Amino acid sequence: MNFKKVLVLAPHTDDGELGAGGYISKLVDEGAEVFYMAFSTAEESVPEGFPKDILKTEVVAATKVLGVKEENVIIFNYQVRKLNYARQEILEELIRFKRLHKDIDLLLIPSIKDIHQDHSTIAMEGIRAFKTKSIFSYELIWNNLSFDTQAYISLEEKHIDKKVNALKEYKSQGFRDYLSEEFIRSLAVARGVQFGVKYAETFEVVRLSIN
Fold it and tell me: Which residues, 6 or more positions from 171, have their beta carbon under 8 angstroms from its beta carbon?
């Protein structure tokens, strides 16, 4: 499908790149305007030696690698692991954005089966706000007890390269094993094998709106 205006919801900075970085890069290549909304910069979890707001800088740099314009990156500062306490406020922010951008035609969110409390909050509020739009859930396998590979996006090596390079911008998070280049490439290859292509990312189809 030829999506023109896309909103990516990331509970924490880096979630969107991890789950859909290749597809984001491909969407930009195809001419889509992509917006990226991050809800927590996880200041409480930033390792010693880094500024507490380092993730604000890193997410802008990372999404820029994927081709997202800096002015399209929206960063909130909700407290990590407590997004569920701000559920109504988050919903109102999403509705406010939707009123300004009525022509959003694809929403990317975490899986509704994601067991992280922040991820499930953003997934559900995203669905509430954009229930008339196409909605795909991206895969974060360390948080998914199950994941339905209902849709796959075939990717070129350049898209995986951009995903890898985007995630390298998260220098404060380099200790996390799921940010490693080996893992990112291996998962893209594994998903590609499942669908008979070289590289792929997979998504759950929450809703598909065809006009």
Answer: 50, 58
